[in-house]
Specification:
Layout (H helix, E strand, L loop, with lengths): L24 H7 L4 E3 L14 E12 L2 E10 L4 E8 L5 E3 L7 E2 L10 E9 L2 E9 L3 E8 L5 E3 L8 E6 L8 E7 L10 E6 L6 E7 L9 E4 L4 E3 L2 E12 L2 E11 L7 E3 L11 H4 L7 E8 L5 E8 L3 E8 H10 L3
Parallel strand pairs: 6-10
Antiparallel strand pairs: 1-22, 2-3, 3-4, 4-5, 7-8, 8-9, 9-10, 11-12, 12-13, 13-14, 15-17, 16-17, 17-18, 18-19, 20-21, 21-22
Amino acid sequence: MNVKIINGYSLPNIPWEERPVISDPKKERVSLETPMWRYSKNPIIPRDLTLRSNSIFNSAVVPFKNEFAGVFRCDDTSRHMDINAGRSKDGINWVIDDEPIKFIKENPDIPDSDYKYDPRVIFIEDRYYLIWCNGYHGPCLGLGYTYDFEKFYQMENAMMPFNRNGALFPRKIGNNYAMYSRPSDSGHTPFGDIIYSESPDLIYWGKHRHVMAPSGGWQSTKIGAGPCPIETSEGWLVFYHGVLTSCNGFVYSFSAALMDLEKPWKVIARPRPYIINPREIYELAGDVPNVTFPVAALVDKETGRIAIYYGCADTVTGLVFGKIDEIVDWVLAHQT
């Protein structure tokens, strides 16, 4: 299928590696069952890249001034969760600030955060918006923006406790801003559906719509949006994580689905299998074993190449690659 990227970027310098050639016919057949493949030099960001980091994972990356910038979850050696800014020339080798972002509050009454984690970043209209899980009497959704990845401004919290996994859309739906989120509880949520919401001003949110619920197998316990939605000619391409509860705890995998362009709470196609699940040592072993958690996606609209940044075992950051045409074809072929 000839899938077109709408309102995307031309990224000739997108991080990229071709699908590996596997000499073993049996393994080659298995590898072709998934439309994405891991970077051979994963993980690209180690756990100790900053001065005091215990782990760096579940982080957001965007194109910026012909290079790349991002906001990274950096848990420090006291295990406090916060987000730090970073920059890269090639999207693979990163320099991340040792100190967390110091937000400038739009309103002095905006409450301080107990913690910040799992950010997403997206360019909308004239600035880069950040959305993250914000500690304010439990996990809620914090919101802010930057123009230059030097100064960051904090807005009012987008969603009250308890909520996680906010992902903003790159354009308005009708006259409103839009997001996916996952309402939760105060603990390590043993449930979760994806919900769609709209706002005229990024302050007051409503028009809530149910999108998807857990559906069994690898996504039987809870699901949540990953990278911000990608607009294509076939619908919004949404990567999302799913969780199953095994006899030894949670297992996080991820896949993709297609949503209606004008009513993004309506599912066009949702696959039964996962695309990526924990199987490499850096995904299986870490502070939280058995986690592959997608948070950011770079897409080159000219070639349809996509690079997804994902957290590995809540410890380090990895990359997986694919092509939009192949991913959409796979989603349509494997839908439930």
